[in-house]
Specification:
Oligomer: single chain
Strand content: 15-25%
Number of helices: 8
CATH architecture of the largest domain: 2-Layer Sandwich
Distance between the termini: 85 Å
Helix content: 40-55%
Structural class: alpha+beta
Order of helices and strands: HEHHEEEEEEEEHHHEHH
CATH superfamily of the largest domain: Band 7 domain
Number of strands: 10
Number of domains: 3
């Protein structure tokens, strides 16, 4: 770990739990303050007592009303006091805090983000287009709120940086299957992308549940040329396989003829047979038989 990483780890906030007051008793107190105000308006006769009761009744009502907050499932509230982090309330329901305490709601629900298509140079320098789909969520509310300026923008930028890093680490394609490629090893590369994202987003208290590539292709300016190259490589590979198979079949045919003594072939006749068999086995068109009525030497 570098010195900058050590400093960041020392300054990082960590989520701690906190239990706030239930909002339901305070809701009864709020109702009592409202009733007190209404009672004062109806029953108090003296002007001085009337004004005094109305003032304190309204003040109590506002004091209690300012402390309510409600949490839905998969929501948390980060509680602070004069800028100092106190803790995170995670319990669902109606809560109440002192009005001078701050509460910031955060959603810890799963988020799904599909990044924009970006142009990256792969390991061999070929320009390619990439886009990723990332499923992420907040696991540490204190880090997400206090350790980065805007955690959603931070996630977007780090996804792009991680996609660029992974795209430059491997070639887009390898017809001979000697290397790990972006197109041919989708699961392995996707797992590395997740590891890269987890490492980059841990500072913001964010974890990645799932990720993968939604778009992966050569850039338009070289797509046509690379397609012709792939087609040429496919033709060459097919020809190579065809020739290797034909040579094996010719060897097998000559060995069988010699072993069973069907015909005695000298070097010239053997060469002619090899030529004919290779034409038959490797030709793209159907062969036409030719009946030789004379001697090979005439």
């Amino acid at each position: 770990m570098s010195d900058s990483d050590n400093v960041a780890a020392m300054n990082a906030n960590r989520e701690v739990g906190i239990k706030t007051a239930s909002g339901y008793p305070m809701l009864l107190l709020l109702l009592a303050a409202l009733i007190a105000v209404i009672w004062s308006m109806v029953h108090v006769k003296t002007e001085h007592a009337y004004g005094f009761g109305i003032f304190f009744g309204i003040l109590a009502f506002l004091f209690v009303a300012c402390g309510f907050f409600m949490l839905q499932p998969n929501q948390v509230s980060v509680i602070s006091l004069f800028g100092r982090y106190l803790g995170t309330e995670r319990e669902v329901g109606l809560h109440w805090i002192w009005p001078w305490m701050g509460g910031k709601k955060l959603s810890i629900r799963v988020n799904n983000l599909i990044s924009e298509k970006i142009k990256v140079n792969d390991l061999r320098g070929n320009p390619i287009e990439m886009a990723a789909q990332v499923v992420w969520r907040i696991h540490d509310s204190a880090q997400a709120l206090y350790d980065v300026n805007d955690y959603k923008a931070f996630v977007t930028v780090q996804i792009e940086a991680a996609v660029r890093a992974i795209g430059a680490r491997y070639p887009y394609d390898d017809f001979e299957h000697h290397d790990i490629t972006l197109r041919g090893n989708h699961d392995q590369v996707g797992a590395e992308l997740r590891e890269e994202l987890v490492k980059r987003l841990v500072v913001a208290g964010i974890t990645v549940d799932e990720c993968g590539f939604t778009h992966l292709a050569y850039a338009p300016e070289i797509a046509g040329a690379m397609l012709r190259r792939q087609q040429a490589e496919a033709v060459v590979a097919a020809r190579k396989t065809l020739v290797e198979g034909a040579v094996g079949m010719v060897e097998m045919a000559l060995a069988a003829l010699s072993e069973k003594q069907v015909v005695e072939l000298d070097d010239e006749r053997r060469a002619a047979m090899v030529s004919n068999l290779m034409v038959v086995l490797c030709g793209e068109r159907d062969t036409q038989p030719v009946v030789n009525t004379g001697s090979l030497y005439q």
